[in-house]
Amino acid sequence: MNFVEPIRDADIFHDIQATLEKDNPRNYVLIMTGTYTGLRISDILKLKVKDVKNKKYIDVKEKKTDKRNIIEINPILRKVYKDYCLEMNDEDYLFRKSNINKPIGREQAWKIMKNIGERFGVENLGTHTLRKTFGFHYYKQTGDIATLMQMFNHSKESITLKYIGITQDTMNKARRDFRI
């Protein structure tokens, strides 16, 4: 399993958003969905237009945990969905293959993330990057590890901090600042 990191730099993240919004609306909505919901890629890819269009919540049964999760859609993401779904049918997959109504797979999502990493000079991107980016920035903004643990269904703070890269950042800083 490859080591995957969040996109830590907000400016780079905003550059990615702006570029994809113009160049590839599907991939833009994929990035926005992952970073504004914190859902796993397996749960994101199965979403249909009817799951998000004119909705306040996403009701998803998580594939990994088999638990039902109701997620309020952030107002920014609601606007993204409103614009993106305008010309789509309710039964269309949000992240469909180019010419058929089937969702892209995990491998295609990984290729999208790998391409973004190469294009914007960000290393170690993968399908968990979006979820980790959500967690990283949520924690940096709020410091609320307890809520984040619940969102991610983690049993310990240490697991969540390691997952979102905070533990790695702390160790990197310790080594960088170390002097004898």
Note down, in words, how this protein is organized:
- This protein has 180 residues and is mainly alpha-helical.
- The chain has a single domain, classed as Intergrase catalytic core (hpI Integrase, Chain A, Orthogonal Bundle).
- Helices cover 56% and strands 6% of the residues.
- The protein contains 10 helices and 2 strands; from the N terminus they run ααααββαααααα.
- The chain has a two-stranded antiparallel ribbon.
- A hairpin with a 6-residue loop joins β1 and β2.
- α2 packs across α7.
- The N and C termini lie far apart (36 Å).
- The model has no long low-confidence stretch (mean pLDDT 94).
What's the average pLDDT?
Answer: 94
Low-confidence stretches are none
* Gross morphology: globular
Number of helices: 10
Roughly how many Å is the radius of gyration?
Answer: 17 Å
CATH class: Mainly Alpha
What is the share of helical residues? 55-70%
Strand content: 5-15%
Helices and strands, in N-to-C order? HHHHEEHHHHHH
Oligomer: single chain
Number of strands: 2
CATH topology: hpI Integrase, Chain A
Structural class: mainly alpha
Largest sheet: 2 strands, antiparallel
CATH superfamily (homologous) name: Intergrase catalytic core
Count structural domains.
1
CATH architecture: Orthogonal Bundle
Q: What does the secondary structure layout of this molecule look like, with pairings?
A:
Blueprint: H1 10-23, H2 25-37, H3 41-44, H4 49-52, E1 57-61, E2 68-72, H5 75-84, H6 106-120, H7 129-142, H8 145-152, H9 157-163, H10 166-177
Antiparallel strand pairs: 1-2
Give a summary of the structure in a few sentences.
By secondary structure, the protein is mainly alpha-helical. The chain has a single domain, classed as Intergrase catalytic core (hpI Integrase, Chain A), CATH 1.10.443.10. Helix content is 56%, strand content 6%.
